[in-house]
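Why do we care about 3D structure at all? Because function follows from shape, and shape follows, mostly, from sequence. That is the central idea of this module. The next example makes it concrete: a single protein chain, its amino acid sequence, and then its structure expressed as tokens.
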Amino acid sequence: MPPRRRSHILALVVLPALLTLNACGRDNAPAPPSAEAQAAIHDAGGAARIPLARAIDSLFDEDAVGRTQALLVMKRGAVIAERYASGIEAQTPLPGWSMGHCVTGLMIGQLVSDGRLRLDETAPVPDWQRPGDPRGEITLRQLLQMRSGLRHLETADPERASDRTRMLFLDGRDDMAGYAEAQPLEAPAGRQFEPSAATGVILADLAARVLAESQDPAQRRRAVSDYVRTRVLDPVGMPGTRLSFDRAGTMVDSSVLAPARAWANLGEFLRHNGSVKGAQVLPHRWVRFMLTPSPRNPAFGTGVWLNGTPPKGPAPLWPGQGRKDLFACLGEQGQYLVGSPGQLLTIVRLGHTASEQEAALHERLGELVALFPG
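And the structure:
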């Protein structure tokens, strides 16, 4: 066969294969990020811009992670990326659920700083002070570190049987602190870690008892609201925050609503160890206490989750992957406020995530954090 003819035949055989390979390559190439994701980025903050835009898109993939209402990234104290769902604006107050424990932790820190509460004294709950009541051994420190030993069942089947549901919505809803404080011990005080919404309500009740002149619900509500706003929300930079109280005048920290930027400012406050623009609002030692692992859980401090490995269950953050100094305020249904001092970074994600989507959300947020250099 002449060489020229042979080469023509070879070309006819090889060309379709090459075209197929090229077509496959195009099909497998990652899709370009959406215009919305690219418009959300004001500054990449040291991350590669296209991967950052793709990471933002991945967190607005409703089929995978549920409905993200707000995503905000701050680097060196400035907002570098910000995106909202349809119908949500920057000023829209959004629920943080248990993220509100961080607000309570700051409020208690100010009261300790003022000398009105003491960390290692018995928590001043009147019913616990009766002779022989073992709950009289519970200290303020143990409550803050979620190791009071009280029986607070967060989940149950059916859900209405859980103490959380009963306290928030059923027989305990009018006097949540009364319900929470009436529960017996299930373990000696200080021995067992057990996060609970009820503990946040007990801490809020202690604040009301030392701030209000009487136990009148209106006085309790007014005293705590004024204190939280003047000593926590205003100094931290959380305008637009809405506090919630039950009928007994006790603040319910799992019902705090705030705009995404307000939540981000809370993360920045913790990242700066309690200072704002160089002014120390809360003693440095208190914020370090909040970010120090609990004796019963290396993944929890005081109202704040840490990048450690818990004694049981999945890690709330990313130990072994993320930086050791990562911390987060976390709430049910996928609320995340992540701070990374070493990366000069704060990230907020707010929305609605079903339980079967939580693992995907967790993974994608970890990938977002990892995009930024130290």
